[in-house]
Structures are given as C-alpha cells and as structure tokens.
Amino acid sequence: MRRYSPYIEFDRRDWADLSDHSTPLPLTEQELEQLKGLNEHVSLQEVQEVYLPLTHLIHMYVGASQQLHELTSSFLRKKARKTPFIIGIAGSVAVGKSTTARLLQTLLSRWHTHQKVDLVTTDGFLYPNAVLEEKGIMNRKGFPESYDIKRLITFMGDIKSGKPNVRAPRYSHLTYDILQDEESVINNPDILIVEGINVLQVKKESPLFVSDFFDFSIFIDADEKDIARWYIERFQLLRQTAFQNPKSYFHGRFSNLSEEEAHAAAKHTWKSINAKNLHENILPTKGRAQLILKKEADHAIQHIYLRKL
User: Fold this and answer.
1) Rounded CA gap, 257 and 29, in Å?
2) 59-97 burial by CB neighbour count: b if 16+ within 10 A, else e?
3) pLDDT for 116-160, tens place per residue?
4) How far apart are CA 185 and CA 32, in angstroms?
C-alpha cells in the first residue's frame, strides 16, 4: 500500500513551469550578491525557477488572506485593524535560512499590493549571554530553553493584533550577544517574515506557539552530511574574516587556529551542539511546514514539497 503524504512533490523543472514566464525577473546579479549569505550559492536561474514561483504562490495567499479578513470584518460589522501576513522560515543552522528570508523579502516587496515587507530573526529573542551564563546553559545556545519565548510570543501577538511600532530586540553575530541599546521597530507591514531555527517548535506545556501566528511557513531542508559540511566551511571562512576582528566574541578562541585545528573545532561544535539540536528540536518540526525546500549538496534547491489543501 502506498504511504499517504500530506505534500505534493515537485521537482525543480515542474515547479519552474508554474511561474509566469512573461514576468521579468525583478532582481539583478548585483542585488543577489548583496542578499546572499556567507558560503551561500544562489544563482539568478534559481531565483527565476524556484523563488519567483514561490513569491507568486505567497502573493496569492496574501490576497486570499486580505479578502477573508475583509469579509470577516464585514460579517461581524466591525472594522478590524490591518494585520500583517506572517511567514515563518525554519531549518538548521547553516542551511541558508537567512538568504531565503532576504530573497523573499526583496521579491515580495516588489508586488505593488504588498510593498512593505519586514524581516525579523528569532536570534534577537535569545537570552543575553549573561542570563545564559547565570542559567548554566551557555552551551545550549540555540536550544529552545535559550530563548525568551514569552517575549517572542508577546511580540508575535502584538504584530498579529495590528499594533503599530512593535519593538524587537536585535542580535549581533559579531559580539555573539543581544545589542542592549538597539531594537528593530515593526510598524504595520503588509508582510512580516520571521526567520529562525525555533519558529516551528512546540512545547506541550505551552498553550500558545510562535507558529500559531503564521499564515504561511517554510522549512529549508538538506541532508545532514551536507549541512555539516556547509557549517564547517562557513566556520573556516569566519576564522579568516569576522573572527579576526578584535571585537568578535570568537576572536581569542578561534582566530589563531590552524586550518586543521579550526576544522576539528567546527566538527566538534557541530556534533556536540548543532547536530543534537537538529535531531531533537528542528527536524521533528519539518512536517509542520506548509512548504519544504530541499537542497542538494551544491546548495541548489531541486525538490519542493507543498502541503495539500
């Protein structure tokens, strides 16, 4: 008996055929370079074949959501506040979530019906390092218990209720900590993209989850061996660049390591922290996403899985 799947599977060619090929690509090579993360490989062809159809799909979801909102308000005879369409993007460390989020933000903002597209990452809702040290969980950074989930839920609730000027804490990957005097202000966007490894996670003891606020959710997937290799490659690049900055949290730890020593350190970190988090908390949430983008060893997205309606 064939096993039932809640997803419709597309290979890249079939997915690309869903796009309106008469629509010009609203992105230049220079813009793409600015959007790509460290060690990320995304071509304009992939933008055309994968991301453009995806933005068309999300555009339709946004339109349907706006129409339903208007119809519901009319039925209730009550003028409701405008609320953003919220997209969640999840996946492992080093799988390319941030690049996907920035690409979608840029492409979606070029539709005239939803030009204001904001982006926040859940890194800003990590507890400050001082709190993590006090709790004795500095080595669990990125695991569910290292996030101020209450603050994140409050933020999501304020956004979804249409409140203006909602503030979100900001995180620095250079200092590896929360920026105490800096915040992002989200003021009634048409679309809000929320990116982070934890956005689809659930806790049995919690009555409300971050994903309860999502209108659409995406999981970036790849084989673990490929993600591990990308993580190690990125670590080596950071050792040669950002870690050389004296202000970097990792300057004294990794900047003077040899290539072999850095490879060993990255491999150990992957196995002891990131792989563990992947198996315990991230992979189990993949099936909760409405769309899964599956990457191959060369970073290229070759398979797309869309949840059936």
Assistant:
1) 35
2) beebeebbeeeeeeeeeeeeeeeebbbbbbbbbbbbbbb
3) 999 999 999 999 999 999 999 999 999 999 999 999 999 999 999
4) 25
Contact 182, 168 (CB under 8 A): no
- Angle at Cα 198 formed by Cα 10 and Cα 298, nearest 5°? 45
Tokens read off for 36: 């790509």
Question: Which residue reads 């991301």 in tokens?
Answer: 51
Q: Please report which residue ranges of the chain form alpha helices under DSSP H.
A: 12-16, 29-35, 44-46, 52-76, 97-108, 129-135, 149-160, 224-240, 251-254, 259-269, 275-277
- Give the predicted TM-score (pTM) of the model: 0.95
The answer to whether residues 35 and 104 touch, using CB atoms and an 8 Å cutoff, is no
From CA 138, how far away is CA 129, in angstroms rounded?
A: 7
Q: Shortest CA distance to 87 belongs to which of 191, 232, 201? A: 191
